[in-house]
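Researcher: We're teaching a course module on how sequence relates to structure. For the next exercise, students receive a sequence and then see the predicted structure as C-alpha cells, so they can try to spot secondary structure elements on their own. Here is the exercise chain.
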Amino acid sequence: MDPRRPVGSLVLLLTLAAAAPPTTAQPLEPQAGGPPAAIPGNESTLPDPPPEVDPLLAEAGRRFDLGVAYYDEGRYDAALAEFLRTYEITGEWSVLYNLGQVCRALGRNADAVGYFERYLALGAADIDPDRRAEVQAALDSLQPLVARIRIDVVIDGAVVFVDGVERGATPLPGPLLVDPGSHAVEVRDDRLPGGRERREIILAGGLTELLEVVVPTSVPPPPLPPLPEEEGSVWASWWLWTIVGVVVLGGAVTTGVLLWPRDTTYSEGSVPPIVLSLGSW
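Model: And here is the predicted structure for the students to work with:
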C-alpha cells in the first residue's frame, strides 16, 4: 500500500483550497453622463482577484505534502507528526489510512490497527473496493501482533490511563489495543480508595486480558472468637480442685473449733454433767 496517495474527498478538499477557476471581467458598459465607452479593440480587461483561501486548509495541504516527503525519506516520526496535524485540521477520514501506514512502518502496530479500523468504519461505502481489500488484509496480518485489555469497572465516569496516556472514561466502548509487553493500567476516581487503582500487567500478542476494578464496601469486622482453653491447663485438673476442697473444708473445721466457747456443760437425762474445758487439751 502506498501511503503517499491521498484518497477520498481529501484530494478534492485540498484542491479547492489551493486554487479556483480563473474568471475574466467583461467590458464596462457606458453610463449616462459618464465617459465614452472604450473603443472596440481597446477594451481594458482586469482579472478578478483570486478567492480567499482558508489559512487552515492551506496549512493542511502543506503538511500533507510534508508528510509524504518525510515518509519517502524514511523519517517516519516526522511523517506521523505532519499527518496527525493534517487530520487535526481537516478531520478527514481518508487521512486515517496514511496514519495507519506510517504507524505500521514505526512498529506501532496497536495504533496502526486502530487507525485502519476507524478508516474502514468512517469511510464505509466511499472506500474503493480494492483499497478496502488492502486495508482488511493489513488488519488480518496485524491481529496476532497486538494485545487487548478489557477493563471492567463497577462505577461509571472513572478515567482510564494506560502507560500514563488517558484512554477514556468508563464504561469503555470496547477493549483497549496495546502492543505486547508490560503495561501500567490506572483507573482514577474519587470513589476508589486513595482515588486510584493501579495494576501492572504483561500481555502477549493476540491475547485479551480482563482487568476488574471493584469498590470495597465498609463491612464491620467479625467478633473475635473465644480464647481456646489450653489443654493441660492447671485450672482444668480435677486433682487441683480436690485439694482446694479439702483445704477449704479443713480450714472451716479448724475455725469452728477455735471459735467454740471455752467452757460448755452438756446435761441430758441421768448422765452426770460433762464439762468441756479447752484449756485442758
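Model: If you want an answer key for the exercise: Confidence is low (pLDDT under 50) at residues 15-30, 276-281. The chain has seven helices and nine strands.
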